[in-house]
Structure formats: C-alpha cells, structure tokens
C-alpha cells in the first residue's frame, strides 16, 4: 500500500527529531490532530436538485495560538489530505514565528463543474456547517486551491449572519471592502520571492538573473512569476492543469495571466500600438516542465509532484516549494544527494499566512495599514526565518526542510515547556 500524505508529512517531523530532540509530551501532542470535523454540505443546484458534498475542517495543534489554515475546493480533498495540510500549517506558523497553530479545511468538489451561484451556495453552506467549530480566537480559515477572496467574502457574510454581528476576524484573504488587507492577494508568491532573494547567494545561485520554471499558474505561481520577472529573472515555462508553455528567452507573466483569465488557456497577448495578437508558445507536458534545465523550479500546484520516479531527472539547481507538500520524502532524499537546494514549503509559501496574520491583527484593531507597511513587515519576517533555517542547515549539514522543522520545533517545544510537563509535576510532592 502506498504511504498516505499524512504519514509522509510525519516522516518529515521524525527526521527533524533526529537533530532536535523534544520533550516526549511535545512529541505526543504533535503526533495527532487536536480535533477533526466531517460535515455534509448540502447545496441546492441551479436545476432545483439537492446535492450533498463532503466537507472537513481539522484543527491540528493550537499550542502557539488559534489554529489557522485555508479552505480547499477540489475533487481530490480527503480527510488524510486536510489533516496533512493542517499539520504543515502548524510548522509553517511556527517557523515564521507568528502566534498561530495549524488548521485546514476542504470540500470534495470540482468547482469547475459548478456555476458561480452554486459556488456561492456551497461556500455559505460549508461555513454554516463549520461555524461552531471555528472562531476568531479558535480557528481562522483563509483561501487555498480553487477558493479566492470572493469566496472568503461570502463566508464572512454567512458567519456574520449566524453571529448577528459583523465579524471580519473570522476569516482572512477577504476582499479589501469587507476587511481584507492590502497585499494579501500576492502575499504567498511575494513571500516565496523574498525567500529566494534572501537565500540565493548563500545557496550558490549568485546574484545574476535566474531562469525559472513554474508548475501551477494560480494565485501563488502567478504572483511569484510576476515579481521574479519584475526583478529581472527570466520565466521560461509555466503550466496549469491543462498543460505547459515554454519560451527560452522568457515569458511575460502578466500577459500570460491576462489571456488565461479571458480564455482559460495558457497563451500570451503581444501588443504593437493598438493591435494585439494572441500568441501560442511551444507547448510541453507538465512532466517535461519539472525536468527543465533551469536555475529554479517552483512547484505551485498540488502535493506529490516530485517523486522517486522523476526526482533523479530534475535539473534545476534550486526548488522553491510554493505548493504544500509537492516533494515526497523519497524525492527529498534524492534531491539532497544530487545537491539540489530545496526551499521547503513551510518557509517558501509562508508569506500567505503571514499577511493573513496581518489581516487578522488589522481586523481586531480596526485600523488598516498601507501596502508598503505590509510588504516591509512581510520581508522582515521571511528574511529572519530564512536566515535561521540557513544557519541551522550550515550547523547540521542537512537539508533546509529538516532545519525548518527544527526551527519550528524549538518554538513549539518552548510553549509545551511553558505549560509544564512531567518534569515539573513529578517534582511536586
Ligand atoms: P490556485 O487554485 O490559485 O492555483 C492552482 C494552479 O495549479 C492552477 O493554475 C491550476 O490550473 C494548477 N494546477 C492544478 N493541477 C495541476 C497540475 N497537475 N499541473 C500543473 N498545474 C496544475 O491555488 P493557489 O492558491 O495558487 O495554491 C497553489 C498551491 O500553493 C497549493 O499547494 C496551496 O496549498 C499552496 N498555497 C497557497 C497559498 C495561498 O495563499 N493561495 C498559501 C500557501 C500555500
């Protein structure tokens, strides 16, 4: 039987425990979720029929604060996946030092088969089903794959109706008009970009422009591509669920995104004067994109994309894991042996939850920041976390993923110790 995503996630923790031993009580608390909820999500479809979807919400661990994590609408959502994503959120919040534990939610649905009105009803129905399980001081959702700020807006509205009080701090990634933060839309890609810029010289990538391939051209992938291109790097390939496009001398991410929004296809518009034409590029397969000879490969789609089957063929010097869990533990070993530097998901994509934290802080204060303040504070947090992980990697001579877990474990262990463990209690007579 193949390993579950959750078992693979825990294997990463077990590896870190070889470098940083924690109290047995901390280990026990981290081995299983605090609470998991399975819900039926009834939706009245446009044709009048009623469809029941399966939904989940998991609060993995709240030692450092209320649990925090996105909501995914995807046909592949299972409890195992949601549990793993909540587990990763626990370590992600800890590695960047924000006062949250880890949570996650999802609905098993293909939103591409639903009308916009059906998606609104699904979003409200899911929120109504989990409303008693979450709370601004207990568990705060956000967007994830195939959910966006509009969906967060419907959900905050539904929650506020249930509470009979406008409660913006229940969810982050909201539209600005409903209490969202400046800078949340591009925060995940921006965090990955800041991590790469901070780490590239210490990782041996030098200071010259880099060639970059990106798997997944959604929220995380597009903004990462855009910021890297603006900084002078060359985006040579991008992909989505339908396929990939390649251009050796560089794509313009904004133009590709514009055509994708209009046509749902990966192409680009090139304009001369007032005349614009849509251009096809050399198409390659998703598998080929992962094996391109580039400086940086950024998986920004789903889990388990780099496996023992293709890791040996990866030619990139550095991997920026914008997606959660794109590399299996076996692939991780192979990449480390090959000398490929992997900036791990819990650091590379932590920009999203960091600006979500800023949004929650602003909602609670009722005072909103300028976008420059958001960028500056995000950069400070990512830079500090990245330097800590690199220092640990130098010290332990192991990969950055293990060191990111070690860095997170230190903070989590401190919180367990502060609550008292067997050592404190057995000393009392
Ligand atoms: P999104 O829905 O905006 O985009 C996902 C993209 O991946 C789409 O372009 C889709 O076509 C593409 N895709 C799906 N299957 C693919 C495949 N097999 N090959 C290539 N492309 C494929 O989602 P997102 O918010 O950008 O999330 C992407 C990843 O980043 C997920 O792993 C998510 O958990 C992670 N992440 C997102 C955020 C955030 O704030 N959005 C934060 C942290 C982590």
Task: Please provide a written account of the structure.
It contains 15 helices and 14 strands. It has 429 residues and is α/β, with parallel strands linked by helices. It has two domains: 33-175, 3-Layer(aba) Sandwich (Rossmann fold); 181-429, 3-Layer(aba) Sandwich (Rossmann fold). It has a seven-stranded mixed sheet, with helices on both faces. Strands 1-2-4-3-5 form a five-stranded mixed sheet. It has a two-stranded antiparallel ribbon with strand order 9-10. α3 (79-95) crosses α14 (400-419), α6 (187-199) packs across α13 (371-396) and α12 packs across α13. The mean pLDDT is 94. Nicotinamide-adenine-dinucleotide binds next to α7 and β7.
Q: Report the uncertain regions.
A: none
Strand order of the largest sheet: 11-8-7-6-12-13-14
- CATH homologous superfamily assignment of the largest domain: NAD(P)-binding Rossmann-like Domain
Q: What's the architecture of the largest domain in CATH terms?
A: 3-Layer(aba) Sandwich
Distance between the termini: 49 Å
Query: How would you sum up the major sheet?
Result: 7 strands, mixed
What is the typical, i.e. mean, pLDDT?
94
Per CATH, the class of the largest domain reads Alpha Beta
Ligand names: nicotinamide-adenine-dinucleotide
In short:
With 429 residues, the chain is of the alpha/beta class. It is built from 15 helices and 14 strands.
């Amino acid at each position: 039987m193949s390993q579950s995503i959750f078992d693979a996630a825990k294997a990463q923790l077990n590896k870190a425990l070889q470098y940083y031993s924690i109290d047995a009580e901390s280990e026990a608390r981290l081995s299983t979720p605090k609470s998991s909820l399975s819900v039926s999500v009834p939706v009245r479809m446009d044709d009048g029929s009623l469809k029941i979807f399966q939904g989940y919400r998991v609060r993995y661990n709240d030692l450092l604060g209320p649990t925090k994590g996105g909501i995914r609408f995807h046909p592949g959502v299972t409890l195992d996946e949601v549990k793993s994503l909540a587990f990763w959120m626990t370590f992600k919040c800890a590695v960047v030092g924000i006062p949250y534990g880890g949570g996650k939610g999802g609905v098993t649905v293909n939103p591409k088969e639903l009308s916009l009105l059906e998606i609104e009803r699904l979003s409200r129905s899911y929120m109504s089903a989990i409303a008693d399980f979450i709370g601004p001081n207990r568990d705060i959702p956000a967007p994830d794959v195939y959910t966006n700020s509009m969906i967060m807006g419907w959900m905050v509205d539904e929650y506020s109706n249930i509470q009979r009080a406008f409660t913006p701090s229940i969810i982050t990634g909201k539209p600005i008009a409903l209490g969202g933060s400046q800078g949340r839309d591009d925060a995940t890609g921006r965090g990955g970009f800041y991590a790469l810029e901070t780490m590239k010289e210490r990782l041996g990538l030098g200071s010259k422009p880099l060639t970059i391939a990106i798997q997944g051209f959604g929220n995380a992938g597009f903004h990462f591509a855009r910021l890297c291109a603006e900084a002078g790097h060359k985006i040579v390939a991008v992909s989505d669920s339908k396929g990939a496009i390649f251009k050796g001398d560089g794509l313009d991410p904004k133009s590709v995104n514009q055509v994708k929004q209009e046509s749902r296809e990966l192409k680009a518009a090139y304009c001369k004067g007032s005349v614009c034409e849509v251009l096809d590029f050399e198409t390659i397969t998703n598998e080929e994109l992962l094996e391109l000879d580039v400086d940086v490969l950024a998986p920004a789609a789903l889990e388990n994309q780099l496996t023992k089957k293709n890791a040996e063929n990866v030619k990139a010097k550095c991997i920026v894991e914008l997606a959660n869990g794109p590399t299996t533990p076996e692939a991780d070993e192979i990449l480390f042996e090959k000398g490929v530097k992997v900036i791990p998901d819990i650091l590379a994509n932590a920009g999203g939850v960091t600006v979500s934290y800023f949004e929650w802080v602003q909602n609670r204060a009722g005072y909103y920041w300028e976008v420059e303040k958001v960028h500056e504070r995000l950069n400070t947090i990512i830079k500090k976390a990245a330097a800590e992980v690199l220092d640990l990697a130098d010290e332990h001579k192991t990969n950055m993923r293990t060191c990111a877990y070690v860095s997170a474990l230190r903070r989590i262990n401190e919180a367990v110790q502060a609550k008292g463990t067997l050592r404190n209690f057995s000393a009392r007579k």
